[in-house]
Amino acid sequence: MFISSAISCVSVVYFFSSFVTAGRPSIDCNFEDSGTRVSDREDSCIYYYCTSRRLWELRTCAFGASVPKFYRKYYSHKRTKLNLCRNAFSTECYQTVLERKKGEPTPPKPTPRSTTPTTPRPCLKEGQGRCPGGGKCCGDLQCDNKGICRPLEDFVCPVLGEGCLGNHVTNQECCKRDPIDTNIILNLKCGPGKTCCVTEGGECEENSDCCEDQNDVVCKIDENNPEEPKTCSRVEECASLKEKCGPSSAKQLDCCNDVTQLQCSREATCCAERGVMCSGSDDCCRGLECTAKTCQPPTRIECPSPIDIVFAVDTSCSVADIDKDHLRTFMTEVTRAFNIDDNLQDGVLVGALTFNQGYQHTAYLADGKDDGKLLNMIENMNLTEVGCKTNTFTALDVMKNIYFTQDHGERPAAKNWAIVMTDGKTVPPGKQAKTFKNADALRAMGTEVLTIGLPQSDGSIVGEDEWLGIAGGIKENVFTPDFSKLRETLVSIGGRLCGEQNVYVNT
Ligand SMILES: *[C@@H]1O[C@H](CO)[C@@H](O)[C@H](O)[C@H]1NC(C)=O
């Protein structure tokens, strides 16, 4: 009599009370599964609820409801949308979550009424209809918009992946805050398919979590905070191979660097860097060639000992623009050919200046500590002449007094090489003696001086005697290519500086 009246009275009165985070089931709680439940095999009073935060939260069946034995076994390794607290009666499930948290002993269960209920009309059970006119719902059951009694938890605002508005029993918008922890803002909205989806900036697991009506928004990791969960974020546009880039381009895009390493070239187009796949040399950045399907320097020079090289490049008016571009490519190939590094085993440092009327700075030896920075300085070196002079004496002077000083990165343990590239003789001619004197002064401090003599824009050769004089009369230190043969000159110079056997040419 006692048991049967208790069942009739309370067995259908159950609801979820509050929750504490407890041990998690061994199966994952994903976004797709939010709202599903898993039972605890050991404890008939609790089950786990998968939240939109991908957390299993512990919930307690209260007031005599419990998870039936079969459910406990069956749903401990399977998710279900079923309300697990049903169809059973357990004398142990009076404990409230608060007590569970405190670890307090179970309070004595309330004495069930042993007399016939005085309510004339029985309350409506879960799934029973025509509330509120046809009767009140039992316990904490609520009357939904179709007049059916439902458990309270069905009235929680819909979370990610659940139907919303007309697709939800309560006709509710998606949860603005986590129904469990209201400190958590969910960034949900009722998306185009009347399903809750994540708005821009909200946490997500997959692209399909992000609302479809947001263009260019994907679920991705913030590269600056890779530890943080993914969020629905706008894809940043970037320029692909051969597309326009940089501040001077219309859209001012950076080159895409996530998959392949691309650089924005001097010509403001994206080019493939060293080691990147290519289909032809015009894919590759300056100073690289497409070799065996990747961009590689055409020449590699592996010096057995450290050296410091400073180039002085003549940009006087007699050098044609097309030849200046050859010079730029040559200087870039030089920088890519050596192992640019300041280590004292085999590191090579490169500095550069230009000269005409006076000299202009390009890069110090010290800039080679960062080979990317040096490469950028060299590729973008300013070859615009300033005045129509060839002040070779000035170039040699600043090489000695500025460029080959420890203040600007010169290493006493590395051999110094000064390389003068010019298409003619010292202007004004009366200063030629000063040119020779300054070259001698460089040699006196242990720097070997090399000249690369180039033809003038009309093809004539002017200045062979001076080139030999600058090189101290050493014929092996004078190179006389034309502008289209500078790559071969790099191979010869590499042999002179580091030994022919240490020069590798791509074929
Ligand atoms: C290059 O140098 C010239 C002469 O000094 C100067 O007028 C010009 O602005 C420079 N160009 C750049 C891009 O710095």
UniProtKB/TrEMBL annotation:
Q: SMART domains from the entry?
A: VWA (SM00327)
Q: Where is each VWFA domain found? A: 308-493
Q: Where is the signal peptide?
A: 1-22
**Keyword vocabulary terms for this entry:** Signal
Matching entries from InterPro entries are given as: ECM_Assembly_Org, VWF_A, vWFA_dom_sf
Where does this protein have compositionally biased stretches of type Low complexity?
A: 112-121
Instruction: Please give the coiled-coil regions recorded for this protein.
Output: none
Against Gene3D superfamilies, the record matches this protein to:
von Willebrand factor, type A domain
Q: Does the keyword Signal apply?
A: yes
Name of the protein: VWFA domain-containing protein
Q: Where is this region: Disordered?
A: 101-121
